Amino acid sequence: MSKTSSPTVYGIPNCSTVKNAREWLAAADLHFQFHDFKKSGVPQDALADWMDALGWEALLNSKGTTWRKVDASRQAAIHDAASASALMHELPSVIKRPVVRWADGSLTVGFSAAQFAAKQAHPTA
Predict the structure, then answer these.
(1) Quick check: is 48 catalytic?
(2) pLDDT tens figures, 17-35
């Protein structure tokens, strides 16, 4: 895991969970970068790294609107990292959001104020 100077938040700007995460970080006066999946796509190397660290199952938002719009036969074909990765690159909105690469190089997915506060208080936790 590489270290960065500030966290990077990956997601889509109109997602309410991403909005909550960005608002929390701003309120905590924590500088961060935002990577918009809609404008910039999903970084190939980053997705592979996320899958290695978190597992593809943690990244696949199988409860969201985008997943529900995916044909049932295609949903059934998602059974490993390769098939999940292909879908996530094609439909970035199927990735659970936000994915955050913290300054220490660690990763989290989703938003929890308690988890973010812990990361701020203990950046290597």
Answers:
(1) no
(2) 999 999 999 999 999 999 9
Q: Does domain 8-121 have CATH number 3.40.30.10?
A: yes
Parse the chain into domains and list their residue ranges. Answer: 8-121
Q: Which residues of the chain have pLDDT under 70?
A: 1-4, 122-125
Q: Catalytic residue, from 7, 11, 15, 50: name it.
A: 15
Where helices occur in 8-122 by DSSP H, the ranges are: 16-27, 37-40, 44-54, 56-59, 65-69, 72-76, 81-90, 113-121
Q: What is the pLDDT of residue 58?
A: 96
Let me know if 67 is exposed, middle or buried by CB neighbors in 10 A (0-12, 13-18, 19+).
Answer: middle
38, amino acid identity: K
